Structure formats: structure tokens, C-alpha cells
Amino acid sequence: MSSVSVTESADCLQVQGHVQYDTPDHITPSNVHTSPLEQFHIWFNQAREANVREPDAMSLSTATTSGIPSSRMVLFKQLDKRGFVFYTNYTSRKSRELEQNPQAALLFFWREMSRQVRVLGRVEKLSKEESEEYFKSRPVGTRLGAWASHQSSVIGEDDLVHRLAEVQERFGVQASDKEGDVPLPDFWGGWRVIPSEVEFWLGKPSRLHDRVRYLRVEGSPDDQPRWTIDRLSP
Ligand SMILES: Cc1cc2nc3c(=O)[nH]c(=O)nc-3n(C[C@H](O)[C@H](O)[C@H](O)COP(=O)(O)O)c2cc1C
């Protein structure tokens, strides 16, 4: 049964209901890690252990140079000393926006744990070598799919099927093959979001949630950032 109910009239859909968040945990600046990347690591592992469905799914927001935002889900693939990595097509809408305005916002929502993590920061492209290493680890079908899709462009009904047939022929492998030599397309790779702000949110009763925000000390190095930590009002 859904946790929301609705009232519908001819011109309006109104939604009522709210899940009561009631976690026994408590976060505050004094009990979190001094680094938000380490704190994320801890929470991510806890989300996996709690069998959160798709803990690696995150919303990515970008904006045009005139400030028009857009969001979509992507998969979080790596957290290194510098930041959060995801992979995509470099000609897609998100990548075009990131090229012009290299700032992004990420959002994780782990419903089963009443937790949310917000990340803001500038982005950089991964090196070709880094993207190549990841690309090689993907199944053949997914690698062919990257070649076949001109992501975010308008296509006709059968275009994808034709494109897939073309690339299968070009590389002499089938999408169902277990192995095959499918190189990294030069229009595909990773982006890294280097955080300047990270917020951890924990749902509590009466909407008096816990919020802990890290702000990066300006000028501190990318691979060894320093942070100020504050508790925010819900
Ligand atoms: C759970 C989930 C995970 C996704 N992961 C990715 C991803 O890692 N990379 C990607 O390019 N698109 C991914 N997508 C598809 C994107 O949401 C989006 O449709 C696509 O990237 C085109 O976005 P754009 O036109 O804004 O560039 C995912 C979608 C969902 C629902």
C-alpha cells in the first residue's frame, strides 16, 4: 500500500501523507569523520550492508551558462582522494552543460535508511587512461551500446537497432558475446565531481532531522582538502 493518498479534481492532483522518519542514529559535527569523503565511505558501506536498493544511483544536476538546471540519475562508480566519479557519453546534454559550466550537484537518497547525501562541486574529465581502464571492465554488450548510442540526440524508431548492427559488424563481436575487443569511444568517459560542499541528512521524527554540512576551506589542495563542519537546522 502506498504511503501517500491523493485527492483528484479536474485541474489538480493533491498529495497527502508522509512517512514518519524514525532512525535511532544521530549525527552531529562531533561524531562524524573529519573528512566528508571518509564519512561518505562509511555511509555507503552501511547502505550496502542494509541492502539499500541501488545505493550507487545518484541524481546529477547540471546547469546551462544561463543558469537553467537539469537533473537525471547516473551511477556512482568511484570515490578517490579527489572526488566522485561517474561515466557517460561526452556529447550528451549533461556533458555539454558540464563543458560550458563545470559545476555539478549530486544527490543520493537511501530511502531504507532515511538518509540523504548532497554533494556540490566543480567537475573535471577523467584522463583517457582512467576511462579506458573502467571501459574495459564493462560487459561487451554495454561497450557496444556506448558506441551505438548518440546519447541525448533525437532518433527514429529503428535507429538504435541499426546502429547496434553496424557496430557489431565493425568490431566483429555480438552484444551477447562474453569477450571481444571493443575499444573506448573517444566520445565516452568519466567525470569527477570535486566536492566543495557535502551534506549528510538523517530523517528524524517531527521533521526535526539531523543535518551536518562540510564546507571546504578555500585554497586547500584537491587531494588533501580541509573542511569546516556545521550542524544545520532542518
Ligand atoms: C538508476 C539510473 C542510473 C543511470 N546511470 C547512468 C549512467 O551512469 N550514465 C549515463 O550516461 N546515464 C545513466 N542513466 C540514464 C540517465 O538518467 C539519462 O537518461 C541519460 O544519461 C541522458 O541524460 P542527458 O540527456 O541529460 O545527458 C541512468 C538512469 C537511471 C534511472
Automatic annotation (TrEMBL):
Its EC number is 1.4.3.5. Its cofactor is FMN. Residues 188-234 form the Pyridoxine 5'-phosphate oxidase dimerisation C-terminal domain. One of its GO terms (biological process) is pyridoxine biosynthetic process. Gene3D superfamilies: Electron Transport, Fmn-binding Protein, Chain A. Keywords: Flavoprotein, FMN, Oxidoreductase. InterPro entries: Pyridox_Oxase, Pyridox_Oxase_CS, Pyridox_Oxase_N, Pyridoxamine_oxidase_dimer_C, Split_barrel_FMN-bd. Pathway: Cofactor metabolism; pyridoxal 5'-phosphate salvage; pyridoxal 5'-phosphate from pyridoxamine 5'-phosphate: step 1/1; Cofactor metabolism; pyridoxal 5'-phosphate salvage; pyridoxal 5'-phosphate from pyridoxine 5'-phosphate: step 1/1. The keyword Coiled coil does not apply. It comes from the Eukaryota. GO terms for molecular function: FMN binding; pyridoxamine phosphate oxidase activity. It holds the Pfam family PNP_phzG_C. Residues 47-161 form the Pyridoxamine 5'-phosphate oxidase N-terminal domain. NCBIfam families: pdxH, PRK05679.1. HAMAP family: PdxH (MF_01629). This is pyridoxal 5'-phosphate synthase.
